[in-house]
Amino acid sequence: MGSGNDKKYLVKWGFKNRPVFEKYIQQTIEDLEFDAPRIFELFRNKVGEWENDYLKRSRKRFVAETIAPPQNKLIKSPKRIAQKIIDSWIEYDEWKSKSAGGKAPQKYDPKKFLTTMTDVVRFRVICNYLSDIAYVDQRLSGFVNNSCEIEIESRNDHIETPLGSRRFFDSFERHFKRYGKRKPGAFAILKELAEAGDDGLKRKDLEKIFSTSSYQASRSEFDILLEYLEHDFYIEKIKKTDRYRFANPILRDYWKKNQ
């Protein structure tokens, strides 16, 4: 049903309880069930075309691939969207109560979240070499500029950012800030997975690590964090097992060295 904090915000927004709020979110994102696969297929086909153009005078090799999140979940679940909205209000109120300087944290409008939440639908285009990234970036920009349905709201060039202050796709700091009170658990889990190597650790072991990381730890919080880490491409489930490991050995080594 949610914590006391959850209920405080839900009542303020006009929702009786968490299930009612999640049902409202489900109804709000209903149309995306049809749009998300169409958009994903559009980009996958375009990237395939660009790869073929790129390799016309070269030997066949991997250039780029459009990939969906684990289990092909292109759309965030109502449960995750609800939690992200609630977490954003908690973070904002904490920032406001401390009279902290700088830019205010993002606070999502519970009834207009689709206008500001940028990862309700998500997938990635993965490239092989830096030169491939530059080519795909150029083709993507040209495609979007000629489209009346798609536009680029923001663009960040992580290639020009020093390796010591970035991870492959996003900064640790930004993700971990979003994890809120689950942050100690995320650090603890990734620390142990970094030491575990390619074999990873069993889910029950990760849950035990999480449960000892914070007095606020619970089974539901662990489930949410594990889903966050998987969807943010930090970890992956090893096929046909109940074990998890770092999604990429280079990322694992970078974590060990810098965290």
* Sheet/helix structural class: mainly alpha
List low-confidence stretches.
162-170
Number of helices: 10
Average the pLDDT over all residues and give the rounded result.
83
Identify the overall geometry: globular
Oligomer: single chain
Strand content: 5-15%
Main sheet?
Answer: 3 strands, antiparallel
**Rg calculated over all Cα atoms:** 20 Å
Report how far the terminal alpha carbons are from each other: 35 Å
The side-by-side strand order for the widest beta sheet comes to 3-5-4
Q: What order do the SSEs take from the amino end to the carboxyl end, as H and E?
A: HHHEHEHHHEHHEEH
Helix content range: 40-55%
> Got a strand count?
5
Tell me what the structure shows:
With 259 residues, the chain is mainly alpha-helical. It is built from 10 helices and 5 strands; from the N terminus they run αααβαβαααβααββα. A hairpin with a 5-residue loop joins strand 4 and strand 5. The radius of gyration is 20 Å and the shape is globular. Helix 7 packs across helix 8 and helix 7 (183-196) crosses helix 10 (249-258). The strands form 2 sheets. Strands 3-5-4 form a 3-stranded antiparallel beta sheet. It has a two-stranded antiparallel ribbon with strand order 1-2. It has helices spanning 4-13, 18-28, 32-54, 78-97, 130-145, 172-179, 183-196, 203-211, 219-231, 249-258; strands at 64-67, 124-127, 201-202, 235-237, 243-246. The longest helix has 23 residues, at 32-54.
